[in-house]
Amino acid sequence: ISWLYAKALSEKLTMFLLLSLPLGISFFLNHLGFIQIAVLLFIFVLSFSLSFFLSFLVGVSCFWIEDFWPIHNVKYVVTSFLGGLILPYPFFSPFWQNFLKYSPFPYLVNFPIKFIQNQATMDALIISAVWLVLLIFLSQVFLKKAITKYSYVAS
Hints:
Elements: H1 2-31, H2 34-60, H3 69-82, H4 94-101, H5 110-116, H6 122-154
């Protein structure tokens, strides 16, 4: 898992730096201090990590099912909808906003934006870190089960 994660993270960071360098430097230097930029980069890595391990869990499901794409498409729609890409959070009822606050979905896309807007809280950082630890743990558990199943079938 760690090699795959490091490869994907390095690709995303390189793409982020190349795409955001010309426009982002002037924006960040005019609106954010250096400490805020460092925290924002940490939040980007945290959000990417949540997305990676959530996708990894869906990918590991290929060991148990034959057709992966329907599950991948459902994951994409659910994360887009509950992550605030399709429908922003103010359109959800207060009950659902409070419920989603404790799910990993707002921290996939919405969290870095909230930080730039000075609306992020320390609670959000803690919740996203807890979800990351949980997703890493689940990824390792399900990968071990998948490898065991694969090696058992192959024997």
